[in-house]
Amino acid sequence: MLVLKNNVHIRSAGISYDRPTYIQHTKNNTANSTITLTKPTTETINNNDLLIIIVMNDNSSATAQWDNSTFKPTGFTFIKTGGDGTSDSHFGIFYRIVDGSEGATVAVSAQSNSDYVGFYIHIAGANDTTPIVNQGTVTVSIGTPTTAVGVTGNADDLGIVMSAYDGADGSPFSTSSGSWVWKDNITNGAAATGVLGGFGLLEYASVNASNCQVDAPEGTINRPNRFCEYTSTSTVGLPRESRTSLAWTLSII
């Protein structure tokens, strides 16, 4: 899980966000080693907003498919990659703070030529210096729901869970965890040999709090529970076929 930090951002439409807030995303798929993702533009993207790229493929080796040097989108910062020969699937995740120099599209190359899917996500209100707070442990499951390890955040944080599956058949991913909202799925390739990828979101304020501390008003915004701790795991429902998948969570402030 990823946690993002918060900043108050005033958008061109006059809407302000004092916590990380999902705005929009695009997605794409390919059977090559390079995928092209289009920056979402349905809603205005402002300087200091956060862009996140999540990519997945079905390579069956233990070789990392993305890194912080060669196999990454230009201008983005590497967060994490996961996957191995057991999961027969891999994921990579990167972020960038908007400065206006982003292109309309971005190419993301992987180590191997495999079935390949990706998401380009726009978030407003995240911290524009250090948005990533906590990361969970990658979990791998075979033929059963995958429980993504939760991480602690506070009421202003946003969680992201992602999952990749070795196969393009079966039902799409979903989550049975009440606080999580599954956003989207995408597949590529043949039913038994392709890849399925997806992601979901969590607003930490919807989770029961623990270890609360008193918080004085901050500016004109009173956040009495801002320093409470919130932790939520996410049970990601697998497609019907008994093959492997992996899941991972992070939180954003």
From TrEMBL:
This is Uncharacterized protein.
